[in-house]
Amino acid sequence: MKIVAIQSSPGKDGLTSRLAQAVLRGATAAGAETELIHLNHHHINVCKACARGWGQCRRGEDCIQKGEDDFYAIHERLAAADGFVFATPVYFWDLSESAKVFLDRLRRIEWPRKEQAPLRGKAFVGIAAAGGSGTGAPMAINNLERYVSYLQLRPVAQLPVSRQNKDLQMVAAEQTGRFMVEQVQAGMQAWKEQG
Ligand SMILES: Cc1cc2nc3c(=O)[nH]c(=O)nc-3n(C[C@H](O)[C@H](O)[C@H](O)COP(=O)(O)O)c2cc1C
Predict the structure, then answer these.
(1) What is the three-state SS of 13-44?
(2) What residue spans define the domains of the chain?
(3) CATH architecture of 2-188
(4) Atom of ligand 1 nearest to the CA of 94
(5) Kind plus residue range of the DSSP H or E element containing 178
(6) Which of 80, 108, 126, 184 is the most exposed, fewest CB within 10 Å of its CB?
C-alpha cells in the first residue's frame, strides 16, 4: 500500500511539512510505503482556462499544458497511490497559493472523467496549518474540502491545526496515518469498483 502526501508550504521542515510527515510516520508504522512531495519545489503552471473557460479537459482529455511542467509527474504519483494526504499552511484564512494552483489543475482533469477518474475512491486526509495568529484553519480546511469534493475521494479525516493546538494535532496526525491505512485495508478501495 502506498500513501502519498503533498505539502504546500515553502518550508521543507515547517509546521505544515511536519504535520504531513506525522501522518506518513503513522502510515509507515501501519505498514504502508510513503512519499512526501514538497509542492513548492516543483514547477506547476497556472490553469490557462483555455477555450474561453473550458478546454479539452472537459471532454476528459489531458490538459493542453501536459509536458510543460511537473503537474502530470505528481498526478501520476497520486494515481499510483492508495491514499492521498494534502497539507497546506493557512495564508489569509485560506490555502497557500501553490495549493490553489495545483488543486485548480487537479479538479479540472479529474472531475470530467467521472467513473474513470484516476483518483476516484482513494482515501484522503486534509490538513490546514495556521501557524501565525492561529486563526483561519477551519476556513482553510473548509476551502480544501470544497476543492477535493470534485475529486471523488474517500475522506478519512480533516485536521484544522492552529499554533495553539499543534502539539495535540501532531499526535492526531500520526494516529490519522495509522487509521488511514486501516481504512484502506478494510476495503475502502472496494468503493471504487462499486461506484
Ligand atoms: C502570506 C501569509 C499569510 C498568513 N496568514 C495566516 C493566517 O491567516 N492565520 C494564521 O494563523 N497564520 C497565517 N500565516 C502563518 C502561516 O499559517 C504559518 O506560517 C504556517 O502555519 C506555518 O508555515 P510553515 O509550514 O512554513 O511552518 C500566514 C503566513 C503567510 C506567509
Answers:
(1) CCHHHHHHHHHHHHHHHCCCEEEEEEHHHCCC
(2) 2-188
(3) 3-Layer(aba) Sandwich (3.40)
(4) 8
(5) helix 166-183
(6) 80
Query: What is residue 190's predicted lDDT score, i.e. its pLDDT?
Result: 59
Taking the chain (195 residues) in runs of 10, the rounded mean pLDDT of each run is: 98 98 98 98 98 96 98 98 98 98 98 97 97 98 97 96 98 98 81 56
pLDDT of 193: 59
Q: Which amino acid type is present at position 12?
A: K
pLDDT of residue 188: 55
Nine-digit cell string for 173: 496526525
Question: Which residue's alpha carbon is nearest to atom 29 within ligand 1?
Answer: 91
Residue nearest to atom 24 of ligand 1 (CA): 14
C-alpha distances in Å from residue 184, one per residue of 47, 110, 156: 32, 21, 10
The pLDDT score that the predictor gives to residue 151 is: 97
Residue 188 sits at the vertex; the CA angle it makes with 184 and 194, to the nearest 5 degrees, is 155
Going from the Cα of 125 to the center of ligand 1, the distance in angstroms, rounded, reads 20
User: CB within 8 A of 171, min separation 6: which ones?
Assistant: none
Which of 15, 90, 163, 169 to mutate to test ligand 1, by most ligand atoms within 8 A of the CB atom? 90
Nearest atom, ligand 1, residue 7 CA? 25
